[in-house]
Amino acid sequence: MIVVSVVLGLLQLALPAAAIPRRGNEPWSLILCKFRDSDYEPRSAEWFKEWISGGNNPDTIESYFSSVSNAVYTIKGSNVTKWLQLPWTRRQVLRMAYMDPRLQSERERPFAMFDKAKQLCISFAEQNGYYLNKQKITILNMENTAVYGKDTGVLLTPKLIFSSVLTHEMIHSMNIGHSYSDRNIRRLKALLGFSVLLSWGIR
């Protein structure tokens, strides 16, 4: 805890504002989303609620961020939807992704399917009356990936529903990348000699 506090202090003193981990309370919304052609639910909605912010449980995502940041950053008030079934099959979503010109740049194309799925799940949840916070996590009931996108937030799939994976992707929302690959973070690596994500206990 002392090491983490020192690291965060150095970040504030030495880096531009864009590289400073976020402060204050920032609730997230978790959207549980199924394709039309699959009823599979890897976990219940109640399980996800407990995972994110289940009371006094020290193993929740809420407890993790409060602990690792010394309560500088919290996610109290985060909410979880029920499992929502899209009116489109996986194949239809994939086709929509390939037809969306915004997702066909060289940089975006590898993530097109996941970005389109997140867009549709978020929109469908809002159409069903859910209030969604600015920061979002979409749990998809198929595929095998974990990814963060600035516009649509985090995506997790069944085989990657782990606290370490989720917190890793959530931290990307704070403008923190991988120091070994993100050219905008190289200054930090040279200054402190380690990966920011590793400093938060995220591998």
UniProtKB/TrEMBL annotation:
Signal peptide: 1-19
Keyword flag Signal: yes
Keywords assigned: Signal
Protein name: Uncharacterized protein
